[in-house]
Amino acid sequence: MRPPARLLHGAGLAAALLLPAALPAQAAPPARTPADLYAADGKKGQELPGMPAAFDPRAEEALCTPASKEQAKKQDWSRQRLDLDRLHRHTTGAGVTVALISTGVAPGAAGLDGRVTAQGQAADDCVGQGTFLAGLIAGTGGPTPRLAGVAPGAKILALRGTDRRGQPDPALVTAAVRAATTAKADVIAVAVALPRKDTALTRAV
Q: Is the pTM of this model over 0.90?
């Protein structure tokens, strides 16, 4: 009998989000992150572009987040703390499908190597957050394997839990959870925060 899918949210998903992107596919809004953070070797960490979670719903037009030209060059403390190099000697997640419920995922993003299946509008990731998270989960690291994601051999099933501007929608999250279950995903990662409890979503979970 196939084991039930694991649903990641809250602390479980937060642990995965501590990891650097394999190859940041979409991350370049005007705001910059502070550069006073230190890497595992004690030297000042690399300054990378900020990442929007959603666009202003009041704006007349939303300009999609462009792909970042910057790449992480070394491991940070969080990745070393999780000891992914050692983990990857035992497993890379090959044969595992992770359903990612977020803003969508760009199927052709660098480092995902054609392992993304996007249902419906989930292939259109205007915000970029879902593509970034997919890199954290299953990115290969491209020419820098030591910067690969948690499971660089896994496949991503992209599902939209927001509108195109990244605004959360409980009905879309509910439908996505059901779609992930129907597709028999091994892991369901929900990266959408809803402001209040939703009965239909509770039933789907």
A: no
Report yes or no on 90 lying in a domain.
yes
- Per-residue pLDDT reduced to its tens digit, 105-130: 999 998 998 999 997 899 999 999 99
**Given pLDDT bands bounded at 50, 70 and 90, which one contains residue 67?**
confident
Q: Which of 29, 3, 11, 35 is nearest to 127 (CA)?
A: 29
Which residue range(s) make up the domain with 141? 6-27+76-204
Q: Which of 98, 103, 114, 111 is nearest to 157 (CA)?
A: 98
Contacts of 5 (CB under 8 A, 6+ apart): 99, 180, 181, 184, 185, 186, 187, 188
Nearest residue to 110 (alpha-carbon basis) of 82, 75, 144: 144
CA 35: distance to chain centroid?
A: 23
Strand order in the sheet with 155-160: 6-8, 187-190, 97-102, 155-160, 116-118
Taking only the tens place, the pLDDT of each residue in 129-173 is 999 999 999 999 888 888 889 999 999 999 999 999 999 999 999
* DSSP state letter for 44: B
Number of domains in the chain: 1
At position 98, the amino acid (one-letter code) is V
